[in-house]
Structures are given as structure tokens and as C-alpha cells.
Amino acid sequence: MLQKLFKLKEHKTNVRTEIVAGIITFLTMSYILVVNPNILSQAGMDRAALFTATAIASVAGTLFMALIPNLPIAQAPGMGLNSFFAFSVVLGLGYSWQMALTAVFIEGIIFLVLTACNIREMIVNTIPKSIKDAIPVGIGLFIALIGMQNAGLIVKNSNTMVSMGSMSDPHIWVALLGLAVTAVLFIKNVHGSFLIGIIASTIFAVFLGLVKLPEEGIFSLPPDISPVFMSFEWKHLFSLDMLIVVFTFLFVNLFDTIGTLLGVASKANLLDEEGNFPQIKKALFADALGTTVGAILGTSTVTSFVESTSGVASGGRTGLTSLSTAMMFALSLLFAPLFLMVPAAATAPALIIVGLFMISSVLKINFNDLSESFPAFLTIVMMPFSFSIANGIVFGMLSFVILKALSSRVRQISLTMWVIFTLFIVKLTLEGMNIL
Prior knowledge:
Elements: H1 2-6, H2 15-29, H3 32-40, H4 47-67, E1 75-77, H5 81-90, H6 97-116, H7 119-126, H8 129-151, E2 154-157, E3 161-164, H9 170-187, H10 193-207, H11 240-267, H12 280-297, E4 302-304, H13 308-313, H14 319-332, H15 336-340, H16 344-358, H17 370-385, H18 389-406, H19 415-432
Helix pairs in contact: 2-14, 3-4, 4-12, 4-14, 6-11, 6-12, 8-11, 8-16, 8-17, 8-18, 9-10, 9-16, 10-16, 17-18, 18-19
Membrane topology: Multi-pass membrane protein
GO molecular function: purine nucleobase transmembrane transporter activity
Subcellular location: Cell membrane
């Protein structure tokens, strides 16, 4: 049955290879079970309930990716998108997390419609290759910045905007230990190096008295999900505020998800010679379903994970790899006390190293052509410097159109790019008028 469902022989693989690859993928991305609750809880959400929501949403999203496009790509609440949810929409703009969750659900439904109409696929295929290559790099730097902040290595400074944290902070030492352990184990090709690094850091944090061992033991039923489950705020459904938040999520999620998916596909060698992703429509449909179900469960946008490349590198080629990963996420629900005791500093090394993995796409950018390299450069630097993935894509695509048009290369600009350019100009103009 597995052979027929996942076409194993056609992809030159077998059940054992796929299952092992799926387990390896889980080990390299299991940190999300700790990191996502830590980030979203800063918006006022229940951290224990978020663990359950994160695990179940990861199971659902990964199963969608396994069964619809038959790809070895796992899904979970996305890094960057969860930060945008907590730090930009809730803490930055001042909206409630219930309203933000409602916006995620609405944009998930809209994305299902856009995917069915091939609009998202058209946008993906229209993005210039230089910007496609730059997006993973910018996201990597953005994620690494978040990791350094969680570690206490980077702190806010009124004089220089940011500065290095004090080495007297024990959380920094917890993060540095985890970074060293994770990096060394990864160099030695030890599977599960991320998880081992998190465990080592957490043990060190316990030794320093920063966290306490769970009194209820390491094994228990998963925490109650009801504090976040379907916690929608419909009273503002037709308000201008909801329109603004939904539009913002649509904008960020559209390009953030596309960027991450292209980054994963590139690492997994799933792109064709022109940089397009043949399975993009089915993958985007699975992504849209994951986002919608994730919002119902009570978590931020569910998306594809770059760590899926670890399973691909181990031989994973089909959705059976994703199915194996989903089953591991399901088992993790029984070990909630262990995951919930992990401090943010212990997961910081995983974020920093994930950032490293994603910046390697910079090698694909043509730096000999300024009309290609400058838009890519703006895409990369604007993400961490403006603390916004969407801003990086906006400035990258705007500069691409402007440079190509003014350097007599108008033919290299597609009609869709002109439409996107116009929408970006309108958005920036409205923001300048304090309408958005």
C-alpha cells in the first residue's frame, strides 16, 4: 500500500529509508515545539496550550504535505511568521492575539481560494530568480537575529540601536554552550544535533538554577488546548482594524511562505533548471490548509521548514518521509513537561544555525550584474534591519523593477511584476499617509 500511495520505486527509495529520513527531519526541527510556544506566549497566549497546538498543527500540516503533493517536506508554525504575529501585530500594533489569530484564519481561507485560482503559483513563478535566491538569505539573517536576542547576545541600546549583552548574564552562557555542542555534533554528522544541543543547554540551565525540573514527571497527557483553540474575535470582523491586520498577514504570509518554500525546494533540489517548482500548486494548497487548520488549533501560520532538507539529505524522496515526521510529532504530545521546561536561551542556538543554513543561497546570486545583485542585496538586508520579512521583499522587488526600467531592460519585467510593483507603491503611499 505504501509503495502505491507514495510511488517509492518511481522515486528510487524504500520504506526504511523514508521512515529514517522522516525521523531525522523531526529531530532537526523538533525545537519548534519549544520555540513557538516561547514566542507566541509573549503575546499573552497560554504557553502550555501552545505546545499542544504547535504539535497537532505540525502533524496536520505535515500530513497535508505528505498526502497531497507527495513531498518530503515537513510543516509547522513558521519561524519569522510567529515573530511577526507576536512582535509586530500584537506587541507592535497593539491588537489582541485573538484578533491576530482570526486574521490568520481568514487569510488561510483566502489563500485556499488564491491557490485554487493559480494566483499564488503565478506570483511564485514571476518572482525574479535573484530575489528568489535572496529571500532565504534574508530570512536566515532575520531568524539568526531572533536567536541572538533570545540568547541575550544582542540587546536594545538607545545610543547604537543594538549592542552586545553583558557576559554576566547566565542565559548567554547557556546559549553559547548549546551553540558549541550543536555545531560540533552537526560537523560530525550526528543526527539530532539540534535536539541534543537543546538538551545540553537545558541541563546546564537547570544546573545554574535558571529552570526547574517538572514536578509532574516527564510523561503526561498533553496540556489542555482550550485556552487557544478557536479563540477567534469576530466582533471586529468588518472593522477597518481587521481589514488592516488581514491585509498585513496576507502580504507577509504570501511572500514569506513563498520564500521559505522556495528555500526548502532549492535545498532539496526540487526546482527545475529555470528555478521553478513543478509541484508548487499542490505544495501551496497543502500550505494553505496547514495555515487554516493551524489557526483553528490556536497557532500562527503553518509553513514548510528548511530543516526538511536534513531528511532529504538522508535519502527521503516522497511523502512517506513527511508521514514519518508527522507520527513523531504526534508522539511528542506525550512528553509535554520536558518540552515546556526548556528556556528560550536553550533554543537560541537552533535559530542561529538555521540562519546559517539559509544564507548559503547567496552563492547563487549574480553579483556581476548590479540590476540583479542590488535588488537581492536590499531583499537580504532589509529583513533583519527593519525586522520584517515582507519589507525585504517589497524593497527588493521595487528596486528590481526600477533598475530594469531605467537601464533599458524593460523586457525583463513581466506584466505580473508591474502589477506587484504598483500594489507595493500603493501600499507604501497609504502607509506614508498613515492610512495603513
